[in-house]
Amino acid sequence: MSEQSLPDFKIERLPKGLQDTFRLLYSDGNKWTKYLSPDEIYQGDARELLPQIEPNSIALSVWSPPYFVGKDYEAYLTFDAWQVLLEQVIGLHFPLIKPGGFLVVNIADILCFKDTDMPRIQADAVNKKRSHVTREDVHRALTEHPNYNRYQLAKLLGCSEQTIDRRLHGNNIRGGKHEPQTRVKIVGGLVEEWALKAGFYPYDRRVWVKDAAWENSRWASLSYRAIDEFEYLYFFWKPGITKFDRGRLSSDEWKDWGSRAVWRFPSVRANDDHEAKFPLELPSRTIRLLTEPGDVVLDCFMGSGTTALAAIQEDRRYIGIELEKKYVQLARSRISPGIQIRLIRDSEE
Ligand SMILES: C[S@@+](CC[C@H](N)C(=O)[O-])C[C@H]1O[C@@H](n2cnc3c(N)ncnc32)[C@H](O)[C@@H]1O
User: Which residue ranges form the domains of the chain, and what is each CATH number?
Assistant: First the structure.
């Protein structure tokens, strides 16, 4: 292999192991005859399709993987398989990102991680008065009103429907006693470890503050847990030459979000066609900050096609990968008007 075929920065400054990885990347033995072309969304498992992307060709890969929170599209994964998936996907990114380019992972901690070993929290609810209603009271009321449901019994006896249920069945109708305890699973350390192992360096981390998910506030009835209202963006850098261009954003944009660690914008209002779309603003900001027009942006958990849409709007090219056929179709239909606008614009030039 000639030195000319190596990247145009001093790889000898890198740790030894990483130098070898780079040499392999620039050797001929590593090439497919035909790579995935940009401006297309491919159906399949990210782990099978990522190796078919041209090495050193992607300026930015930005994606939001399955979060392991019980969505339908991640039902095929156990927690171990989920970790293996993310570790492999991150590992497969190193060859295809351009030297000096970025991988941005949008992810959240798992707030309701079932842990059978976790001791049960003994709640001492100082502000809650214990109900005066006894088991005998409930049975007496039931004998007098055999057709009453627990809401009617609760009204009759002046207590909550949980009290009725607890007196009758000795448990809490909202789960609790027989369910394993849940704890927070903090994922940042895992993602960092996988990225470092792949050869990336953690470059930045930001927080996206979204709308609060109040449906989980049922936990708040007897807990100090906060509601779910933010996610992370972890930026990983592949060693190489990175262009810094302050002209990419206006000075107001730099002040508002370009240089800010906390990004505030609402989540997608209606997730009716896909369970977990991220808002267009998320890939748009990332793309504008970290890439140039014409660069290729990758999303290997493409879902409904939001990253492709953002790339088209920002005049970048894209490669999308998505496992589920129905989402590939959805993504293709979401971007087709954008493609038409682009074709019209191209023909006018
Ligand atoms: C959190 S969603 C991404 C949503 C996307 N950002 C959007 O705005 O629509 C994760 C997606 O990854 C897909 N997925 C799950 N496992 C995959 C795999 N092994 N390879 C490729 N895609 C996968 C799911 O079908 C789902 O659409």
Answer: 1-31 (no CATH), 33-114+188-348 (3.40.50.150), 119-179 (1.10.10)
